[in-house]
Design a protein that fits this description.
Arc Repressor Mutant, subunit A; Rossmann fold; alpha/beta; transcription regulation; transcription cis-regulatory region binding; four-stranded antiparallel sheet; 2 domains; five-stranded parallel sheet
């Protein structure tokens, strides 16, 4: 989930719409609401955040360093002032990247993925036998051949790969693929997505790479 912080409703709504077209859940906050939310949000909710986009927040400035105390997701400043002085100031405040508007939504997603890869100091994929799972939006591959998956099944597999070695609860998977503020979809839909994903993987691999434990969640058999 991408969190957008900006005082202007049209900006938040515009980015949310664009992210939605790419199948990426998002949530928009004005700066004052964001300060309250980030200080009280549950840890599971924060784990679902893929990045923070900080826009116009002059009345209630957002501190990237304080933000990082609660969540390690990338912090990207959206700048409308095309000046070196402003860009350097934003980096000094602690943001991970400064993007000048206007910017294509796919470029933002690519920048977020690049920052996360550098932070992990790892390859942008995980391997389980002959299965390669990319964490940058590409379909997984089996023996080098792409396995096309519906967007939400692919995102579940990516999220499990990003958390390989750890269990991920149903709630965490739901937050990752639908966002934490989507109350129009039942959380149990995750079980259906996971069931379909496991069936496809079993058919291609000959084994089930996803281990599940009731009440504990899911984990990749790495």
């Amino acid at each position: 989930m991408i969190v957008i912080v900006d005082e202007r409703d049209r900006v938040k709504e515009g980015y949310s719409s664009l992210f939605g077209r790419e199948g990426v859940p998002s949530a928009g906050f004005c700066a004052s609401e964001f300060g309250e939310w980030i200080s009280t949000a549950a840890e599971d909710d924060l784990k679902a955040v893929g990045a923070f986009l900080i826009g116009e927040c002059d009345n209630h400035p957002v501190s990237p360093r304080a933000l990082r105390e609660r969540c390690g997701a990338p912090v990207i400043a959206l700048s409308e002032q095309h000046s070196l002085e402003n860009t350097l100031k934003l980096f000094e405040l602690g943001v991970d990247d400064v993007v000048r508007k206007p910017v294509h939504i796919r470029e933002l997603l690519a920048r977020i993925a690049a920052i996360r890869r550098r932070a992990q100091e790892d390859e942008p994929y995980a391997e389980i036998g002959n299965l390669r799972i990319y964490t940058n939006g590409k379909d997984p591959e089996i023996d080098g051949t792409p396995l096309p998956l519906p967007r939400r099944e692919r995102r579940i597999l990516e999220h499990l790969a990003n958390n390989r070695g750890r269990r991920v609860t149903k709630t965490q998977l739901f937050n990752a693929i639908y966002g934490i503020f989507d109350d129009e979809v039942e959380e149990n839909v995750v079980e259906s997505h996971v069931s379909k994903l496991r069936k496809k993987l079993r058919e291609k691999l000959g084994f089930d790479p996803i281990d599940s434990k009731r009440f504990l969640g899911y984990r990749l058999n790495v």
